[in-house]
Design brief:
By secondary structure, the chain is an alpha+beta fold. It has twelve helices and 20 strands. Bound molecules: flavin-adenine dinucleotide.
Length: 409
């Protein structure tokens, strides 16, 4: 396939630029969002992406992404919200329970004074929308191309691509995912925790309407989540022990639907049709650093989380909004003070959300009998104690991090 660069709309085909203010490595949801967020800033921007979108997409699989209200506001500022909304299902309430226990935590949009708690949108649709928007900016989209080497100087970073091309930039934003090439090239370590679980993701139809409710049910094997999709379908995210995933993927559609229904329970009636199944091994990866000289890490390259709380991309999008915010006033985008401002504005949000997500997985994975009772009380307390519920709600709505100008109320 011809490189996407040939689709660039900047009219610069005769003189291909090689010196930039910002080079983003990785054009997944985070890198592509950042291209769009930087468009108004009058910076020379390039994006390097190894895969060849829009056909293959970086990782545009069957998953849906639950976007919280904070992310919705950021996407509105980026001008892509109407297109995203066209394929979004509104989440008007959530229902969290544990199999075999009575405790339930419920959150509703009405309690938060909102029309929706969040929006469940196909991953592929978000990716394609962002790439279309990125192609309308003046950024140079170098794709497909892979970063192979980099050299940090005092004022610029030199980057070598697998095409043999060399480019230079004042700032590199690493948005190249959990296995970040930038991190490895710079010799930065990461703290990794393998949950020994995989998430099986697919679409289903159920005999009862979801009515806008996102369900998450904790079971001894792992959580099973059923979320609204457009046209009254649902997306299913079933977290299972890693050593069982192969066998479960080999089940017939009928067997898979029957087992998933058995695990989830009766709230949505029978499980009927099913789409393609994908599996994702689940690991938390926390980069030891959020910045390095003339380098910023964002999205999964900074922190990759278990999907149980649907926070990974929402957190990454707040990284994007903060990068754009700090660069809007920076004389030199790669200056030490620009990087330290980014670090200080992202640190707390990142620690809080990654800690919350990890604790949630570990607490509900543990089958110690006393802990089961505490979990049950915890869910009830959450439902009955307004301040606690408010705190969790604000976090899940994406309003807990320091506000960037993109997300101010
Ligand atoms: C099952 C599942 C469900 C999820 N559900 C939710 C949810 O509901 N809500 C939510 O907020 N989050 C969710 N997440 C998390 C979310 O999907 C991720 O946080 C998000 O997609 C990360 O995007 P990214 O752009 O940072 O990284 P990636 O998607 O990993 O993109 C990295 C990009 O970098 C490119 N790249 C890598 N190396 C190079 C190189 N050397 N040169 C050039 N390019 C390179 C890759 O090709 C890729 O396109 C879920 C995750 C999973 C697994």
């Amino acid at each position: 396939m011809a490189g996407l660069e040939h689709c660039a709309m900047d009219g610069s085909m005769n003189e291909t630029p090689t010196a930039f203010d910002v080079v983003i490595v990785g054009g997944g949801l985070v890198g592509a969002s950042l291209v769009v967020a930087l468009a108004p800033l009058n910076l020379r921007v390039a994006l390097i992406e190894a895969a060849a979108p829009p056909q293959t997409g970086p990782s545009w699989d069957e998953r849906c992404i639950a976007i919280n209200d904070g992310s919705h506001r950021i996407f509105e500022s980026l001008g892509v919200w109407p297109e995203l909304l066209a394929e979004a299902a509104l989440i008007t309430s959530t229902h969290i329970s544990e199999r075999g226990r009575f405790g339930v935590a419920r959150f509703s949009a009405a309690d938060a004074g909102l029309s929706a708690l969040g929006y469940n949108i196909p991953f592929r649709h978000i990716g394609q929308t962002l790439w279309r928007a990125a192609q309308k900016t003046s950024a140079r989209l170098i794709c497909p191309a892979r970063l192979q080497a980099m050299e940090q100087g005092a004022d610029v970073v030199q980057l070598s691509l697998d095409s043999g091309e060399q480019i230079s930039t004042r700032l590199v934003v690493a948005a190249d995912g959990a296995q970040s090439a930038v991190r490895k090239l710079l010799g930065i370590s990461a703290q990794t925790h393998d949950y020994k679980q995989s998430a099986i993701v697919t679409a289903i139809r159920t005999s009862r309407s979801h009515a806008g409710v996102a369900y998450e049910r904790f079971t001894p094997g792992g959580p099973i989540a059923v979320l609204p999709k457009p046209e009254d379908a649902c997306s299913l995210v079933w977290t299972v022990p890693g050593d069982q995933v192969e066998a479960m993927l080999a089940w017939s559609d009928e067997e898979f639907l029957a087992q998933a229904h058995e695990t989830f329970g009766e709230r949505l009636g029978a499980f009927k049709e099913i789409g393609r199944r994908n599996a994702h091994p689940l690991t938390q990866v926390m980069n030891a650093q959020l910045t390095a000289p003339r380098v910023i890490f964002a999205g999964n390259a900074a922190q990759s989380l278990h999907p149980v709380a649907a926070q990974g991309f929402n957190l990454g999008l707040r990284d994007v909004a903060t990068v754009a915010d700090v660069l809007s006033t920076a004389a030199d985008p790669g200056a030490a003070e620009t990087l330290s401002e980014y670090e200080s504005r992202r640190g707390n949000d990142r620690e809080r959300v990654s800690g919350f997500t990890d604790r949630l997985v570990r607490t509900f994975s543990n089958q110690v009998p006393g802990l089961r009772g505490l979990r049950h009380l915890g869910l009830l307390a959450l439902d009955l104690t307004p301040p606690l519920k408010d705190a969790v709600m604000r976090q899940n709505l994406g309003l807990g991090g320091l506000p960037s100008k993109f997300a101010r109320e």
